[in-house]
Amino acid sequence: MITFENVSITIDNKPILKNISCTINTGDFIVIVGPNGAGKSTFFDMISGKRIATSGRILLDGMDITHLDEQHRAVFISRLFQNPQLNGVASMTVAQNLALSNYKGKTITLMNGMEKFPIHLKAELEKLNLGSSKILHTPMKDLSGGQRQLLAFIMATILPPRLFMLDEPTAALDPQSATKLLQFAIKFINEHKMTTLLITHDPQLAIAIGKKIWVLEDGQITKQFDTRDTSTISASDLIGHIDYQKLVQ
User: Is the pTM of this model over 0.85?
Assistant: First the structure.
């Protein structure tokens, strides 16, 4: 369980997150929606330790982690970025990236990181129809965006995190690749009962996959929904949606 107590972040004298108080319970699958500039990515940065809260406290199962740095939080928090190029080391092969993922949160030498490839992951790669025997020796930079995101998902979960954060993971993907990633991710998350946060701009996706939905606006969580109660939520309750009828008038 992660608890936020009146947490704020100010950047260049501008308040980005404002006195956020909320709780992420073990096993939650929370989808976060909100307009651009609302503070969604900053919220993830704060949780991962990339940015330290200006005020307030963050508690993990009662332990104060407010000032714990990103490297040490990486032991129990994983993050998948929306830009495939930020997930993994571009010049290294898939096998090398997977090997390094085994040492998350630890300080290692390059040679040390190459010693142990997690063999059991070959079965996972085969499930994704990526041609595992060939792809293992391919540099990450030579993969498609969809392939890279799928592999990044595996790397982020080699060591099961206590909290998994997906920051618009399909934003740079075509619909087919996005569907494949989401199908794999949702099945994996449900099977492992993984505590998960996901950011999206798609209200329909939020309603379809989230157990809970939080709306972040102007640095504050303004609404919280439980998707099991469908009578209290619709796409328009979130951040609005494209009105396609207006586009063809």
Answer: no
Q: Where is 245: in which H helix or E strand?
A: helix 244-247
Q: What would the pLDDT profile of 16-25 be if each residue is shown by its tens digit?
A: 999 999 999 9
Q: What is the pLDDT of residues 24-72, one digit of tens each?
A: 999 999 999 988 899 999 999 999 999 999 999 999 999 999 999 998 8
Domains of the chain, by residue range, sit at 2-87+162-247
CA 35 to each of CA 8, 82, 117: distance values in angstroms, whole numbers, following the listed order? 19, 16, 41
The correct CATH number of 2-87+162-247 out of 3.40.50.300, 1.10.10.10, 3.40.50.720, 3.30.365.10 is 3.40.50.300
**112: three-class secondary structure by DSSP:** helix
45 in Cβ contact with 114 (< 8 Å): no
